[in-house]
Write a structure and sequence with these properties.
Number of strands: 7
CATH architecture: 2-Layer Sandwich
CATH superfamily: YggU-like
Distance between the termini: 42 Å
Largest sheet: 7 strands, mixed
CATH topology: Conserved Hypothetical Protein Mth637, Chain: A
CATH class: Alpha Beta
Number of domains: 1
Strand content: 25-35%
Number of helices: 2
Oligomer: single chain
Radius of gyration: 15 Å
Shape: globular
Structural class: alpha+beta
């Protein structure tokens, strides 16, 4: 097999569009649907994971619920999860410290996952 100059880009191109690896962890992109019956990943919306959130988008409650859900689903402490962008938007990115793309359960089958 022939090696390319930038073999790391080959690995990154194999990742789904909603996950990005950076030093120290991963960044996950979500399309959030607030005020749902329960909090769950329910598929892919464009280049983001579609995340239904039970909490309303008021006073940061939906963001807090997402952090709780990610912590439980990924088995990391809440302190390892940071909102990177989209504090008041449906399009959000979260940095999760200390995990790699293989530890994200939604990279293969993105059917409904709830916690």
């Amino acid at each position: 097999m022939r090696r390319t100059k930038n073999s790391s880009s080959v690995k990154k191109s194999c990742l789904p569009p909603f996950i990005r690896t950076i030093k120290g962890g991963v960044v996950l992109r979500f399309h959030v649907v607030p005020r749902s019956s329960k909090t769950a990943v329910c598929g892919v919306h464009e280049s983001a994971l579609k995340l239904k959130v039970k909490a309303p988008p008021v006073d940061g409650k939906a963001n807090q619920e997402i952090i709780r859900f990610l912590s439980k689903s990924l088995g990391v402490p809440k302190s390892a999860i940071k909102l990177s962008s989209g504090a008041s938007s449906r399009q959000k990115e979260f940095f999760i410290e200390g995990i790699g793309p293989r530890e994200v359960p939604w990279t293969g089958n993105t059917s409904r996952v709830s916690a």
